């Protein structure tokens, strides 16, 4: 089924919408019957939703990611936290948990999912509604993680190359200024961090696929002054 979904998204929905509609001039678009436009907008909505949410890590793989936490007090951060299921599970293991999610509807779903937690665990979780690349991670995280060691997870399997590049630069900067160890796990490799790669971690996704995540650690990153 995953192959079928990928085929639909990349071969049918995307070309149909982007190519057909972009070729029309504004007057031609206006001339289209309203019902046709509705179909176009439905397809767009479906495509945007697919692009935002597919490929979530499955609960059976949560433990493998959490096990990468460095020994000692560690905060867990999910960059692109989706519907917050990983945050809910992390709140059971980590005393500080942060989710950064760009889309408001995902944040709203996360808030609902977090309601399932006992109050004591729910208080450990902070949701930041933001584009992870607009954030200065060191600034936004320090307030919610007490400056502890960090275990960052990013299921960036659907992130475009440009976004991944900026993410890698952002995480490198974080690693350089953070006073404690930072461990980063990303589904797709982050080239900028290549020299800090330590191991791979397999995890299953909702597509039914097995991904090999990449683990990077700051223990070998040269530190720079925060002021630089
Ligand atoms: C594959 S889902 C991962 C969800 C969850 N972390 C998991 O692994 O199950 C990727 C998430 O990243 C979010 N996302 C995409 N671009 C983002 C960005 N620039 N900043 C923050 N979140 C982003 C998407 O909305 C989506 O919820």
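-> sequence recovered:
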């Amino acid at each position: 089924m995953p192959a079928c979904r990928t085929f639909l998204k990349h071969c049918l929905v995307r070309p149909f919408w982007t190519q057909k509609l972009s070729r029309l001039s504004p007057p031609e678009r206006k001339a289209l019957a309203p019902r046709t436009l509705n179909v176009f907008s439905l397809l767009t909505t479906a495509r945007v939703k697919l692009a935002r949410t597919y490929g979530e890590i499955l609960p059976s793989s949560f433990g493998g990611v959490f096990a990468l936490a460095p020994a000692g007090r560690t905060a867990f951060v999910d960059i692109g936290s989706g519907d917050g299921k990983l945050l809910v599970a992390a709140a059971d293991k980590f005393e500080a948990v942060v989710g950064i999610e760009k889309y408001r509807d995902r944040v709203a779903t996360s808030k609902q999912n977090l309601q399932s937690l006992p109050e004591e665990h729910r208080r450990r979780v902070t949701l930041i509604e933001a584009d992870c690349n607009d954030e200065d991670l060191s600034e936004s995280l320090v307030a919610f993680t007490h400056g502890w060691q960090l275990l960052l997870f990013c299921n960036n399997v659907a992130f475009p190359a440009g976004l991944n590049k900026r993410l890698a630069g952002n995480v490198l900067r974080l690693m350089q200024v953070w006073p404690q160890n930072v461990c980063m796990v990303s589904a797709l490799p982050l080239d900028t961090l290549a020299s800090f790669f330590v191991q791979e971690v397999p995890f299953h996704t909702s597509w039914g696929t097995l991904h090999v995540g990449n683990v990077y650690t700051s223990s070998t990153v040269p530190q720079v002054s925060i002021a630089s």
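The pocket of S-adenosylmethionine is lined by residues 52-53, 55-57, 78, 80-82, 86, 100-103, 106, 131-133, 155, 157-158, 163 (CB under 6 Å).
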